[in-house]
Structure formats: structure tokens, C-alpha cells
Design brief:
two-stranded antiparallel ribbon; rod-shaped; alpha+beta; signal
Length: 61
């Protein structure tokens, strides 16, 4: 491979690695509801309200 092509490939790979990446979307779990309709989450998760107004369980931080 000629040096100019190798340099172009390295530059392309470097630019692709530095490209702006999306922030990962949070993953929500469905809460558990008791007979009275009260929501609760498993250990390690907190009860949150999403942007759409629904109740969900998110990882506790």
C-alpha cells in the first residue's frame, strides 16, 4: 500500500473514532403495583416520573 493511501486511511479512522456520538437513552423498567395501585420498584431502582408523565423505575444513583 502506498504511503499516501495509508495516511488517508489512518486519518479517516481517526476522524471516525472522534465523531460525535449520541448520549444513550435511559432504560426504564415497569414498576410493580400492589392491590391498592401503589407503585414500587425492586431493590436498586428508584421510582421516577418520565418526560411523558408515566411512572417508571430507573437505576438508583
Amino acid at each position: 500500500m502506498k504511503p499516501i493511501y495509508a495516511a488517508l486511511c489512518i486519518a479517516g479512522v481517526t476522524l471516525a473514532a472522534c465523531a460525535q456520538q449520541e448520549e444513550p437513552a435511559p432504560i426504564y423498567l415497569q414498576p410493580n403495583f400492589d392491590k391498592a395501585g401503589n407503585a414500587s420498584c425492586d431493590v436498586g431502582y428508584a421510582l421516577v416520573t418520565t418526560e411523558t408523565g408515566s411512572v417508571a423505575c430507573a437505576p438508583a444513583s
